[in-house]
């Protein structure tokens, strides 16, 4: 699975808009929009902020998806 696909899935499961997730994570709407549309890969810090905002226990899952995308 691709990072941006998983992020959108997790966000929608919690009924969050991109703007609301951005507020919670401290990431701008435009950056989140670009990430979710697969235009850019997030930094490790952004991934961690998103996992905290989404209350995801397994941070490694999302970090691994980002690493795999940057390697491939």
Automatic annotation (TrEMBL):
Ranges where the HTH cro/C1-type domain occurs: 7-62
PROSITE patterns to which the protein is assigned, alphabetical: HTH_CROC1
* Family annotation (InterPro entries): Cro/C1-type_HTH, Lambda_DNA-bd_dom_sf, TransReg_Diox_bact_type
What is a single molecular function from GO for this protein? DNA binding
Keywords noted in UniProt: DNA-binding
GO CC term (a single one)? cytosol
Q: Please give the name of this protein.
A: Helix-turn-helix domain-containing protein
List the source organism.
Paenibacillus silvestris
